[in-house]
Amino acid sequence: MSVARPNSIAGFAGQLVFFAILLVVLMYFSTSPPYKHFSGDKALLKLSIRHAGQIKGKCHKPSEQELAKLSPNMRVSKICPRERSEVLLELELDGKFIYQDRLQPSGVKRDGVANVYRRFLVPPGQHKLVVRMKDHIELSEYNYVNQVEVNLAPAQIFVIDFETETGGFIFR
Question: Containing H/E element for 19?
């Protein structure tokens, strides 16, 4: 028994027309309407920081009784708490604070890194940026401070980042 294939040429032609229309629609929306991240008469500051605060509390040497309660693979020379401190962060532009926050550590046990990602539209031109960070709430002074004079062009993107390995802020 053979199955008849009615209008196979008409079916192929219909598919061809459908896919041609789909292709034209995709090509149009891939370039139009134009998308602007922000207006060209402003500059953009991006603050993107991931940093783990210092451990809260003090480490202590376990006693013989504490070690005896632990299984052999869990016995360590020093026991430290897991919870990390909040991170205090400030961003100052030309003497005015544009960002101040107390960043909470991530994780159920509050033992992860603190994250921040913010965008600020600023007028182009010469600016003085000051960034301060304190990674333990009990410190009296900010332990990471950096400032930079920057001349921002219209539509320029300027990023403020932090690297724990180098111990400071990075401006790009």
Answer: helix 8-31
Q: Beta strand pairing status for 125-134 and 168-171?
A: unpaired
Is the model more confident about 1 or about 61?
Answer: 61
pLDDT of residue 3: 60
Amino acid, res. 101: D
Say if residue 99's pLDDT is above 80. yes
Token pair, residue 4, equals: 């008849």
Residue 139 lies in a domain: yes
114-137 pLDDT, tens digit per residue, is: 999 999 999 999 999 999 999 998
Contact 55, 78 (CB under 8 A): no
Q: Indicate whether 115 belongs to any domain.
A: yes
Strand blocks (E) in the chain: 43-51, 87-93, 96-103, 114-122, 125-134, 144-152, 157-163, 168-171
Of the candidates 172, 160, 157, 91, the one whose C-alpha atom is nearest the C-alpha of residue 124 is 157
Largest CA distance in the chain: 90
Domain total in the chain = 1
The pLDDT of residue 36? 77
Q: What is the CATH number of the domain that holds 99?
A: 2.60.40
| pTM to 2 decimal places | 0.73
Q: Is residue 142 part of a domain?
A: yes
